[in-house]
Amino acid sequence: xxxxxxxxxxxxxxxxxxxxxxxxxxxCSVCGxxxxxxxxxxxxxxxxxxxxxxxxKWLWRERRCSSESLDHSGVWRFRELLPxxxxxxxxxxxxxxxxxxxxxxxxAKALGIDQLFxxxxxxxxxxxxxxTGMTTALSVAKERGFEWVACAxxxxxxxxxxxxxxxxGLRSLVVIPEGKIAWGKLAQAMDYGAVTCQVKTDFDGCVRxxxxxxxxxxxxxxxxxxxxxxxxxxxPAFEIAEAFDWNVPDHLIVPGGNLANSSALGKGFREMHELxxxxxxxxxxxxxxxxxxxxxxxxxxNQGATLEPMEAQTRATAIRIGNPASWxxxxxxxxETGGWCQDVSExxxxxxxxxxxxxxxxxxxxxxxxxxxxxxxxxxxxxxPGETVVLLLTGHTLxxxxxxxxxxxxxxxxxxEKVGLETKIDSLRRNAQVVDATADAVLAAVKGSVG
Length: 451
Prior knowledge:
Elements: E1 7-10, E2 16-17, E3 35-38, H1 53-62, E4 101-103, H2 105-111, E5 115-120, H3 130-143, E6 148-152, H4 156-168, E7 171-177, H5 183-191, E8 195-199, H6 203-216, E9 220-221, H7 227-233, H8 235-243, E10 251-255, H9 260-274, E11 283-289, H10 294-302, H11 327-337, E12 341-344, H12 346-358, H13 365-379, E13 388-393, H14 401-409, H15 415-418, H16 422-428, H17 439-449
Helix pairs in contact: 3-4, 3-7, 4-5, 7-9, 8-9, 9-11, 12-13
């Protein structure tokens, strides 16, 4: 399984291309849909041709204790399921992956669920899940001799791409919407040396501009339309299954922005099932913000047959995307696994973020949509009390520190957004106090916080 025997297949019409696809934006010239990586024959392997699942599981676990640098990566540790390089020696890694799976006892009790966990992808090197996809796609770029890589970004992609490009000795170009990105993420891209262009448009406008750029210059596009990105982003599925001794959870809940993450995780669980590593797939649900919910609308209006782009508006900047590239793939994952697509309000996101913080797990706002969405799914009876549920947290809390500060200061939400939720919001706020420099003043503040 180590041989580079992958193909690229159009998700829409099935057209196949070799690994050296010439389209710079990774779209099929026949129907315009996205390509995805496939490994011919995996699903048909039977008997002696089927990989030894037990041996692979043992190998992957043993690599956790290896001194080999590539084994320190939670992505390349599973390289038998990533035969996309001519040589694994070309892999560019920052020891991404191997992220923690946390139990959430307080949230579980409040929701009446026995087992609730959070897979925290914010614990990756640059603080988001994008690192797992960037190590694979940028490694392909390096192996194929590109000197420049580029992405349009709401923040996390730019930080990851710039870091991995710097590590590989490549140059990077970042195109971001002016004033619509958390400053912590922009600071990362600049710190790693990316040429950064703030464009006077939204994310979808940035994508249009950059698509034209890569058609005119020899620059490798590293947005999630790149199928090799999704190969890395599928590996948290392997880690989740491994954490449950290869018994997958009942339900996985994922934030929905450009929708590549849910697509990738679905692919990962599907491939494990095909290869006999697991016996079933989890239900996968996608949660979006109410102001950036094109997939919710698509599934509600026409069962995912078409998607109407929208002007996205949400403070959860990482998912402020109105025309997601991977919507067809995400719709298929939700429908095939029996999941749901739910949207949540700005206040519900803020409350969920603070509740996760009270468990000792900080995350960026876009991550918190998972807990907010789970509450709604529980309320409608879509999640049974005895089920095991995993929330995917995509970004670190310091990715958008201003959001957290504004919430606790009481300046994040307007009065209309808080209607009916004032008591809950007030119970979660921890406004920093200015007190006199005396023990009595500090003790009074402590006493005032109890109750």
